[in-house]
Amino acid sequence: MTAPPADPVKAEVQRLVVYSYTLNRSRHFVLQVIDPVAARDFLAGIVDKGLITNASLDDNDVQSLKKDGFCPLNIGFTYRGLEKLQLREPYLRVFQEKAKAFAEGAFLRAARRLADTGPSAAERWEECFKLEHAHVLLAMHADEERELDEVAETLEEMPGAAGLDGWKTPLEGCHLTTNRKERTVHFGLRDGISDPAIKGFHEEKAWRDGSRKLTLHAPGEFLLGYRNDDQFNPWLLINPSPRPNPWLLPLNPAPGLAEFFRNGSFAAFRKMEQHEREFRDFVAKWATKRGVTAEYVRAKLAGRWDDGRVVKPGEQQAPSDPTPADAAEMDEFDFADDPRGEGCPFGSHIRRMNPRTDMVVPARSRSLIRRSMPYGPPYQENESEKGPRRGLLGLFFCASLEDQFEHLLAEWGNANPMGPGNLGNAKDPVIGNHENPAAIFDIPMKGEKARQLDGFSPFVTTCGTLYAFFPSLTALSRIARCGRPAP
Questions:
Q1: Distance CA 421, CA 316 (A)
Q2: Dihedral of CA 321/322/325/331: which sign?
Q3: pLDDT tens digits along 199-240
Q4: Which residues pair with 265 in a beta bridge?
Q5: Is the dihedral of CA 421, 426, 427, 431 positive or negative?
Q6: Domain match, 58 and 189 both
Q7: How many domains does the chain have?
Q8: 238: closest CA among 260, 218, 255?
């Protein structure tokens, strides 16, 4: 038996999975396969031309693509997309057995696993996210809209592109500021702070104060075919015993099948409309009622001050000392010095999404790689009641949609917050699907009664979600050939 490699091969991994782009714009095509033979010709073309960027390229390499008239491209496929592309049955069966959420699709799991009900219900999603349309997700990044236009035109003219529909209705993203070191998203929240580091891709670094080292996750948390943080590889797909074991026969696929999944990653692509006026009105109302600043209320809801620093016990306003030059340094904290949530409430957005060292949280981590970009213009105080639509195009990578992405949304985001003595029962105050206006958000305060907020309504509406498999470069070539290895 040949053991799988211990470390990922960078040139096999799509770059967007493990490294973010510092570019200002994104364009996502959600494409429908209307002619599988032509669509596979298109896929073969982008593979043969080397248009899909891989993790061996650094930032300088990405910038140099401009000289050749291209920009970074990455691609993923829904389960139904792989069916439409006529991927061979053995591959599809492994997805059915090992990745049920992916095989079923986000549309059918929205209500019970994503808390998408009411205005966010799947039946109300935009047409491109419907099951029989969402087949291929093609992501492009660039600094200028002109660059995206030129590359999109080149792609549409490639052989086989007519086998895919949806080229004329892309989803456009654009950062709210061109300052790459101070990205923000709508609601006035700081962006680009927390980004998981992965062994084999990122360097091990110490915290500024030298107290500990940055956590490096095992590759299997995000890439298939490797051990995760619990030292378990659910995508081994081969009999680990030197002797034949009849109980493991279902996990002994055809030779080379395991290679197809290795270095791939699952992603949830989610379009979320943000209702900025409602959010600002809610914050202003409670700031007046409690006699505090709007930034204070915002900080308690999000868990961070507007500049990105975590709220610490006793703070009534953001720290006056300069913010760190590296935004990632603002993520060097746990909640050991805030065990009662007197700084960062248990119900706040960041403490739900990443509970860190909270003792009440099970040891299993739910790490998620976030590659997101706002859409729509920044909010203007004088804009009309029905101002322009705005929100977030979220792309979230993981090795298990069920254990990572869905668990964060359904269990940590839309259930009661965790924490000893917590008196609140509201959902995530920023992204939760609030259905009970009487639900309480609890703000523990030392030496006085907890300050509680209620009257929540949904500040975010889901416009659509799809689950995609971002294959390795080798697997992408096989998809273009229905699963057969390249000659």
A1: 22
A2: positive
A3: 999 988 877 777 777 788 999 999 999 999 988 898 887 654
A4: 470
A5: negative
A6: yes
A7: 2
A8: 255
